[in-house]
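Dear colleague,

Following up on Tuesday's group meeting, I ran the structure prediction for the two-component complex that the binding team flagged. I've pasted the input sequences exactly as they went in, so you can double-check that nothing got truncated or mislabelled along the way. The structure tokens for the whole assembly follow below. Feel free to forward this to whoever is handling the docking comparison.

Inputs:
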Amino acid sequence: MKDAGGTSRTADTLPAPRDGGHEPSRGEPLLVAEGLTKHFPVMGGFPFRRQVGAVRAVDGIDLSVGVGESFGLVGESGCGKSTTGRLLTRLLEPTAGRITYRGQDITRARRRQLAPIRPEIQMIFQDPYSSLNPRQTVGTIVGGPMEINGIDPPGGRERRVRELLEIVGLNPEHYNRFPHEFSGGQRQRIGVARALGLQPKIIVADEPVSALDVSIQAQVVNLLHRLRREMGIAFLFIAHDLAVVRHFSQRVAVMYLGKIVEVGDRASIYERPRHPYTHALLSAVPRAALWDDDEAEGDGDGARAGAGRRTGTAPGRGRERIRLAGDVPSPVDPPSGCRFRTRCWKAREKCATQEPPLVRIEGNHEGHLTACHFPEEPTTAARGADVILDPALAAAERDRGPSPAAERDRAPGGDG
Amino acid sequence: MTTVTKEAAGPAPAAPGAFLSVRDLYVRFGTEDGVVKAVDGLSFDLERGSTLGIVGESGSGKSVTNLAVLGLHDPRHTEIAGEILLDGQELTGAGERTLERLRGNKMAMIFQDPLTALSPYYTVGRQIAEPYRKHTGASRREAHRRAVEMLDKVGIPNPRLRAEDYPHQFSGGMRQRAMIAMALVCNPDLLIADEPTTALDVTVQAQILDLLRDLQQEFGSAIVLITHDLGVVAETADDILVMYAGRAVERGSVREVLREPRHPYTWGLLNSMPSLTSDPDEELTPIPGTPPSLLAPPPGCPFHPRCAHTAEVGGNRCSGERPLLPEGRGAACHLTPEQKRRLRTGGATGLPPERHRTEQPGSRPA
């Protein structure tokens, strides 16, 4: 690791383990946020515009990404996950809170103070079409950041760019081509090569694969995997796709309306979730693996009873079915207390008045924190009755007759 | 439940009882760079009350097919050949008048992006009422009542009030519900849903998919569900049609295709999809390369440049001879059933034994 001042940057070839010196070991915190908050002002009023409110995009979150770790941040649109990524890269100014990078407070660091750190915190964007300048060649795009940061790799920048293209699985011959000559997946690789040129310690990847086709997604996920493993780069992986995050992240945080509601090891979050929202998210992921939970329906004829209705499955078989009502509320005026309470089937008085702290609740593994007053059982197995909060859905299923699953289970704690 | 046309032999006759029957459909667009073969000889059948999931990546021709069914292509730049029979009525070459009578009435569409599909100038209630008035001749008041009833059915709270709102006042999930209400207002026999949940969050997607399924049971419509997500199909459809480069490469019931996929492309799709149950530390197995350009699709099997098993078939068969998709359950592939079984001993687990490394240099920019 170079000294934090970082004046002597000589890029060696990336796959080699970098400067063996006093590299902080894996697991040590690299990028830490405490009480991170971002409120975007809402202007209004006539004739003089003044602030009439605020979009509380990120509202006091704590997270820490370790050296070489991949940390997943999941949530639905509008939950503040992208804003968090932009705050951590200092592309946005936080309203409150503290960001430390390797122990150094960078929350209010000025441009000049940030300069030596910036290369180490890189970003990959969601849209591979708008994040590359259409008028620059691949060589300029990938070499540009090196030039700006005064990195002169041995053998020259061009050679280095060609190496980088090869590392990300592109043909080095394409040095002089323009972005429009590439497909979406290949463009995303160019974005990755651009980030790698600066030898980052951490890459904030904001929905890096969600704009790509299914068969291409896996290529890019595997590439990022390889970079993390072989180059020890830490990742903050922001995505809405729980299955992709599961494949890429060692630790996962679930966000809802600007707050982290649950955080923990991958296994803890996916197999022993406690927050009702995490349960709802997991149960909403469509699965192609019919053979996992379909056995109870009888086999052979190829027909699927009740057009795929999986409600008759016995408890313990298959997985739970939770259908929330409505959409995420507005972050301008989030619900009091627990923000999820307006869509939660376990909500009670206490949830409206007291905000649940993000703590390790009883029965959780080490490091698994949940912000909930009335947590769920740590299992994703199917329940006795499905939780159907959507009124139209509940009505339709009630009409259909004696399906036990159509019964709404609003009774708090009535699940097993 | 449906089984995809077991009786029909050869591509010519439509299956008896099929409500929508597409036979040998070709759709070509003339562009500056040449002729794009967007759909290249596609056949499928759909019965009343069942759901067909058409799966494919962008550019596989799945949306183009369904725009052809609705007659929404610009005839000046589009060449359509083949048969599209809706309840026995020929739609290819049908006049605009005929199509207008059918659209919104007998067949309706749900688009991916409800914000662009809804007009910002009219209230949601009016937009839902309009096709109803047009097709049934109902009075303004009657149609409005019907719109409110539909909004209620799709789960919009306070439907009477919300009918007066404009689309921008609705959230994404509510807009998609309004779209569904609009599509179902005339009780269509055929509903085409083009990526209806791709723009939505997962929790909302789950609500909408379940709702579609429940409404289908009530209305008895046939649904064509277009999606790139095999998970969505698995949860919603009865049958699957997998498309690649404008052709159907595999078809069968959901259960058959997902349990025992027979085309290497379907294997690839399943293996490259991360799931909540697979081993998270295992690398995904992507399909190498990129989908082909439809200006000059590869000869023979369009998937052969990305296929790992062409050597198994031997000779130049894959690049020289176009494999045919048999009627009913089957896949368009030259591999013999024994070869496939050997290549996929995983069988029920759906995983092939070989997990080849596939960080391929993308040498063919699209």
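Confidence is low (pLDDT under 50) at residues 1-22, 292-317, 402-416 of chain A.

Cheers,
M.
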